[in-house]
């Protein structure tokens, strides 16, 4: 299941709950159900999130052209819990109130719904005591100021099941959040203003890069370039742009590579390092395999094609520099679509973020480094 297909419910629409709903809908495009016993807060929540969105755009923390998720209000708690995968509770930090609420939640949600508490001080074991399914309760505290903060503090109980822990980890990985485990005796993590500003600066840089890609796509359109790349079985292969609609990879066997363990390579005079990044369907995190080839072999990997033909394909107005950093030379191909827009480092950044190809928006399964003439 893609992150955008996951439905979540936020219960409690104070300042914290409203920000959680806004963060999940504005930054990750999730469909968010919200509920609060206070009807005035229910009526006001979309206005509050809209105001926060405009402030985030003004400060460069989100893009004005991004697709946002829906925030839906419901008349009853039972309706708000229909078909949701995660419940994030952000109500007043009183044990009796939370126990009453958690009993209601676990009697009305799906059998596999994860119930997450944002409690700051209460014992999670005590909160889970009233639940129908105690193994599905976990602590997930969004750190204030919530928006564009990549850290989420997580707490487990002795009853939290392994599959629930894995489900929570997978969800937050897909929305690019980092889990910080809090032990029962630990003090809650409180961000300083300096830490918050550092996270915001990182978010601004990501927004700037994404906008640069979009602007470049609008200016130049998509393009392909002739290149020779490394196949997954360590043999060189030629990237053939004309042989099929799928941009198939044609095997060549005129060159061999020596393979060594990842992390064991120290670049020595006379060698070059070639990286290949792969991503599974379930996890958009890059797993790097490293190969070494001698400098004299590198020339054999370049496709022997007249420069005039290259110029016809690329055109005179296509930039040689990466469209993200505008510094390094384009030297990687995005697989399976085959577009060449980025340097290898920026390609890895896009891959790990789970973003699509900047030219065609198709999912990226691999980033393959190439050597161009």
UniProtKB/TrEMBL annotation:
GO molecular function, one term: zinc ion binding
UniProt keyword list: Metal-binding, Zinc, Zinc-finger
Segments of skewed composition (Basic and acidic residues): 237-253
All residue ranges annotated as the RING-type domain in the record: 322-361
Region spans: Disordered: 237-257
Coiled coil spans: none
Pfam families reported in the protein's UniProt record: 3HCDH_N (PF02737), zf-C3HC4_3 (PF13920)
Domain of life: Eukaryota
Record-level GO BP terms: fatty acid metabolic process
Entries under PANTHER family matching the protein: 3-HYDROXYACYL-COA DEHYDROGENASE FAMILY PROTEIN, 3-HYDROXYBUTYRYL-COA DEHYDROGENASE
Name of the molecule in the record: RING-type domain-containing protein
């Amino acid at each position: 299941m893609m992150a955008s297909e996951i439905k979540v419910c936020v219960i409690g629409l104070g300042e914290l709950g409203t920000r959680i709903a806004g963060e999940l809908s504005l930054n990750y495009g999730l469909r968010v159900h919200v509920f609060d016993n206070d009807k005035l807060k229910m009526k006001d929540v979309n206005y509050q999130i809209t105001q926060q969105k405009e402030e985030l755009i003004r400060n460069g923390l989100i893009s004005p052209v991004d697709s946002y998720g829906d925030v839906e209000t419901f008349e009853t708690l039972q309706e708000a819990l229909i078909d949701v995968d995660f419940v994030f509770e952000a109500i007043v930090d009183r044990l009796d109130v939370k126990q009453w609420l958690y009993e209601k939640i676990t009697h009305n949600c799906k059998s596999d719904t994860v119930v997450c508490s944002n409690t700051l001080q209460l014992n999670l074991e005590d909160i889970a005591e009233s639940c129908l399914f105690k193994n599905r309760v976990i602590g997930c505290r969004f750190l204030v100021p919530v928006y564009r903060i990549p850290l989420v503090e997580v707490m487990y109980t002795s009853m939290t099941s392994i599959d629930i822990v894995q489900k929570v980890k997978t969800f937050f990985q897909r929305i690019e959040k980092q889990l910080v485990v809090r032990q029962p005796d630990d003090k809650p993590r409180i961000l300083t203003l300096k830490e918050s500003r550092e996270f915001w600066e990182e978010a601004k840089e990501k927004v700037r890069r994404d906008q640069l890609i979009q602007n470049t796509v609008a200016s130049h359109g998509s393009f392909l370039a002739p290149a020779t790349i490394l196949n997954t079985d360590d043999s060189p292969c030629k990237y053939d742009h004309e042989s099929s609609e799928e941009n198939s990879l044609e095997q060549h066997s005129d060159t061999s590579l020596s393979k060594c363990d990842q992390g064991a390579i120290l670049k020595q005079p006379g060698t070059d390092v070639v990286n290949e990044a792969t991503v599974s369907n379930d996890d958009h995190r890059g797993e790097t395999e490293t190969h070494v080839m001698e400098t004299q072999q590198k020339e054999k990997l370049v496709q022997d094609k007249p420069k005039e033909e290259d110029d016809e394909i690329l055109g005179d107005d296509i930039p040689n520099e990466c469209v993200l950093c505008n510094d390094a030379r384009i030297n990687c191909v995005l697989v399976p679509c085959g577009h060449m827009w980025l340097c290898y480092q920026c390609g890895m950044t896009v891959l790990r973020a789970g973003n699509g190809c900047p030219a065609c928006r198709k999912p990226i399964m691999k980033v393959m480094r190439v050597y161009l003439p």
